[in-house]
Amino acid sequence: MNETLLGFVILYLVVSIGVGVYAATRVRTVDDYYTAGRRLGMPIVIAMVFATWFGAETVLGIPGTFLTENLGGTISDPFGASLALILFGLIFARPLYRMKLLTLGDFYRTRFNRPVEVVMSLAIAASYLGWVAAQVTALGLVFNVLSAGDISKDLGILIGAGVVLIYTLYGGMWSVALTTFFQMTIIVVGLLRISVLVGQLPEVDGVAPVIEHARAAGKFEFWPEMKWAAVVTFVAGLFTMGFGSIPQQDVFQRANASNTERVAVWGTVIGGVAYLIFAAVPLYLTYSATLVDPQMAATMLEDDAQLILPTFVGTHLPLYAQVVFFGALLSVIMSTASGTLLAPSVTISENILKGWLSERQLDDRHFLWITRGVVVVFSTLVVLYALWSQESETTIHQMVENAYKVTLATAFVPLVAGLFWKRANNMGAGLSIVLGFGFWIGMEFIDPEGALPPQFAGFIASTVGMVAGSMFGRR
Binning pLDDT at 50, 70 and 90, where does residue 276 land? Predict the structure, then answer.
């Protein structure tokens, strides 16, 4: 175990907790906890959008997929994820911001009815299990690597989840905002510094040779074969993240916490573009590792491709570079985990539990503690899911991809129709949800690997249900 490196990591975790606890002093009301009082400016909104999406899958999962497949294998993330952020900013942020809602679930209640609100809120909250679990799984991997195996992946998951829980629990969106801004700075500076250092290695010798080597190896193949199954799978991968990520509380929450409508729109768009561009950095670093140490890379590809980059940094770069890299990696993971832990907890509290609470429990002081209790419960579910995923050998990238199937099949169409089609009604929304969910789950059992991906079948059925129900139902 490198005790010096581990000491720096522990110091970093303590500082992050300190920033989060300080943020808690700004929380006075539910509005502060949910949206930071709608007082966040452009730099912090951009930082939150970028850092929340630049997570474990970006540094560990996507490069692993890139090496085992090619650039086309990453169509869902970062391409689909960036598309979602850009579309949300340009099309959805402005009308939603003007409605002055606390959660996205509030939209479904306002535009449709209470049953639609509850079902959509459950679907949105469920979609976060995989995403947050991917982040705490990555924390488990990091602690396992840093301790040279002395800390197991399972124990690392428990430690990581505990740290994120502490500073998210009390500070809410203020904690997410301040820690994310601090963490984004470390992410950008740290990974750029490591890129410069790796580019100076004789086996790498800059960016151009790495790109040329990857091109010659066929890694930049992007478009699918012109066959029905390949094209549909490609498009479904883009839409699963590109559309399924739009009806998400964390995306809405960042735009909604902006101090102006302009910040809500362009902060989201700029954050999405920055994410797409900067996602290339981990790809460059990981592919460079295969040039510097081909034997290590080949071994890791057979075992766990996600460990190539952290193993390379730990064995081939000097101590200060290891401190910079693992500090940046922890920033990447924790910024995403905190934001994605808060979003479903807020949705469950505001849109599901609130309707069943007494008037006394609805005052700010009591309801804040109820929301914090939900954060704890959801964190427990995340840990259990992450531990189960370890047993089933689900990769971080797969966990994130799977997270958005439910929202693509059930929540996206009612959101779009509710905002932009005056004829959309309760029957249309209900039929859209039932058909979307039914076809998605049915196809998962009948033909999960079929030419038409199950979530895409659900998306088509959801669209048909909305049109049919709204055309023939009562306006």
Answer: very high
Tell me the CA end-to-end span of the chain in Å, nearest whole number: 66
Beta strands per DSSP E along 89-144: none
Instruction: Label residue 2 by pLDDT band (50, 70, 90).
Output: low
Task: Tell if the pTM clears 0.70, that is, is over it.
Answer: yes
State the DSSP code for 425: -
Choose among 61, 50, 112, 113: nearest CA to 339.
50
Burial, 279: exposed, middle or buried (Cβ in 10 Å; 0-12, 13-18, 19+)?
buried
Q: Vertex 129, ends 140 and 443: CA angle to 5°?
A: 120
What amino acid occupies position 110?
A: T
Q: How many residues does the chain have?
A: 475
Dist CA 362 CA 356 (whole Å): 10
Return the pLDDT at 19: 75
CA 356 to CA 359: how far, in whole Å? 10
Helix (H, G, I), strand (E, B) or coil at 258: strand
Residue-range domains of the chain with CATH: 3-66+103-223+279-391 (1.20.1730.10)
Q: Tell me the backbone φ, ψ of residue 394, rounded to 5 degrees.
A: -80, 130
Measured CA to CA, the distance from residue 138 to residue 60 in angstroms comes to 8
- pLDDT surpassing 90 at residue 4: no
Averaged pLDDT for residues 260-281: 95
Across 111-243, the runs of DSSP E, i.e. the strands, are none
Distance from C-alpha of 216 to C-alpha of 223, rounded to nearest angstrom: 16
Query: What is the spatial distance between Cα 330 and Cα 337, in angstroms, rounded to a whole number?
Result: 10
